[in-house]
């Protein structure tokens, strides 16, 4: 089993684990019911992406990845979200989720580019349109929130 070759995919799955936790927390903390539903749906998209990629990681390393990117940018944002005492929770959540989407999409692009497994690269490229829709949705919600405030 080639754990060195699997390192980018492992990092991507860890990033997805972080993003899933972000969306679950955001769905719980959001004040606006429509945002809660949107965050749940976008989190489900991240769960789906992980479900597609996890089997390739198991084939390469022999184990599923359930860990997180502790010490990474997403982990620090997650702590900020958990500790947030901001009066406008939804605006803060949207700003943080925008960063989550940027980091996740970047990690997907990098992993697809450096993966030595053609199937992994193909699966990631196939997931990108759905993941980009999440990013667009966060941006749309941010614009709506900015107009409303």
UniProtKB/TrEMBL annotation:
Q: Which InterPro entries match?
A: CHP02284, DUF2383, Ferritin-like
All residue ranges annotated as the DUF2383 domain in the record: 8-109
Known Pfam families for this protein? DUF2383
Q: What is this protein called?
A: DUF2383 domain-containing protein
Species this chain originates from = Marinagarivorans cellulosilyticus
Q: Lineage of the native species?
A: Bacteria, Pseudomonadati, Pseudomonadota, Gammaproteobacteria, Cellvibrionales
């Amino acid at each position: 089993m080639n754990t060195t070759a699997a390192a980018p995919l492992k990092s991507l799955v860890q990033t997805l684990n972080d993003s899933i936790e972000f969306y679950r927390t955001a769905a719980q903390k959001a004040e606006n019911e429509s945002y809660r539903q949107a965050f749940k749906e976008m989190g489900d998209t991240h769960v789906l992406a992980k479900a597609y990629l996890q089997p390739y990681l198991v084939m390469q390393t022999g184990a599923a990845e359930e860990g997180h990117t502790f010490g990474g940018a997403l982990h620090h944002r997650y702590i900020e979200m958990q500790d947030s005492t901001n009066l406008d929770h939804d605006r803060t959540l949207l700003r943080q989720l925008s960063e989550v989407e940027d980091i996740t999409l970047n990690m997907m692009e990098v992993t697809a580019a450096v993966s030595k497994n053609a199937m992994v690269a193909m699966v990631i490229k196939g997931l990108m349109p759905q993941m980009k829709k999440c990013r667009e949705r966060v941006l749309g919600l941010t614009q709506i929130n900015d107009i409303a405030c």
